[in-house]
Input
Amino acid sequence: MVSNLENNTTSPHASNDSSGAVLSVKDLSIALPKNADREFAVKNVSFDVAPGEVLCLVGESGSGKSVISYSIMGLLANALKVQEGSSIKLQGEELVGATEDHMRDIRCTRIGMIFQEPMTALNPVMTCGEQIDEVLVEHTKLSASERKEKVLAMIEQVHLPDAARMYDSYPHQISGGQRQRIMIAMALILEPVLLVADEPTTALDVTTQAQILHLIKELQGDRKTGVLFITHDFGVVAELGDRVAVLKQGELLEIGLSSQVLMQPQHAYTKMLISSVPNHTPPERPAIASDAPIVLQTINLVKKYVNSNFLFGKKAVIAASDVTLEIRKGETLGIVGESGSGKSTVARCVTRLIDISDGRVLLSGDDIARVPQRNLRDLRRKVQLVFQDPYRSLNPRRSVGQSIVEGPMNYGKSKAEAWQKARELMELVRLDPDGLDRYPHQFSGGQRQRICIARALAMEPELLVADEAVSALDVSVQKQVLELLEEIKDRMQLAMLFITHDLRVAAQICDTVAVMSEGKVVEYASAEELFSNPQHSYTKSLFEAAPGRGFKFAREV
Output
């Protein structure tokens, strides 16, 4: 049921007359297969995108955002069916019922798409230049030299350094932000009238994210391209969107100017989502006792990688340099920084997934830095990890109960004790213990992350390491998981190392924050001190790059 749509539909770009719209979606309904959790993935959704406008689609996982984007592109899975009476018009041309050959002609020429994960969207055995050129080969009659000239010009337009080198590079040889720029170049090289962007900045750090958002806005503005931008990040909506449409379980609840919806939401669901957006102000929390036992301490930790090259010999790359940190019992230490700053390297050294090059790593006073791998069995119990992607960190062929009890049983617990503990942990992470017999694919992303937390806690660790554990979650689910981690940490008096690129998340959960850049800790302070008065220029640049930082969101539910 659409709520208050009539009160919130004014747009600086579009009037009620959709005849000039780049994209016009009317009464779109897409049926789910039988025995699904609901009848429709999308139900009676209508909206327009005007030339030069950015319309943001927001909502939790399962709201139908990506299904809508795939239906526009003609990429729906065979199991999903667009219902009679639905209409998707591109510049007045009906796309529902179009042949696959016609949709192939439209893709890239009139509709471009940027996918969420460029590493999986790009072909790993083709150079970046070849992949952009493939679009021109398919849709133009340009000569090879003309195509290369156009590709190089486009690479420069998306502000990539050394266009010739980028042309010859493979996807794995460039950074995540650079790969996303290659995807943007592919999507826009034929100057489509509509750009569909499906969560293109979710996995990027704040500075790279800011650059990508600015680039999309710049290129879209120059060409008057209409943009349908799918996101769950309201900071991105505030930064980029002209209008925003809110979806829940396939239904459009609210649509209007971004400023109106974000500051004066009309629907209760929109209010709930906005109230879940973390802010940059750390909540008041009791100080960690100065005499609390130190669980983890790194002293001048150094990690070097040596690259061997036939022509140039060996070259050392320093991933972490002189990193000194400590975490006390009941404390959460956050490490923030851009991709490549050394955050995950430090986490891998602490957990002994990789060996350090120099320095010391003390766990409850014991130096574990140079304990041989074969003797690390006790460490594996004391230090547990929660990874970014819960789906990939759970075995799809094993029930979640089997995944939770495996560790304790390997360390001597009886089967009965391990299963009883698993039931207790499922209750602790607020899941039904009867779900232990189900498999990972039968749970939502947020539920799978709770299962991963339960699996880690089953080992009764002294230190919990969370590596980007909430970055892929919707804001509402993210809030729930952060509150859960905080509650568990306080109840069990755990020490926690929390790796994140999201400053808002760090503000909400961390007692202390270390800011890393180029392998070094450039600032180290309490969360309250760091967020109220950052000292280092790099920390200040991270704050300035955070999307929607200066925007005042409605917080009342």
About this structure: The chain has three domains: 5-110+193-275, 121-191, 330-341+373-545. The chain has a mean pLDDT of 88. The two ends are 19 Å apart (CA to CA). The chain has 21 helices and 21 strands.
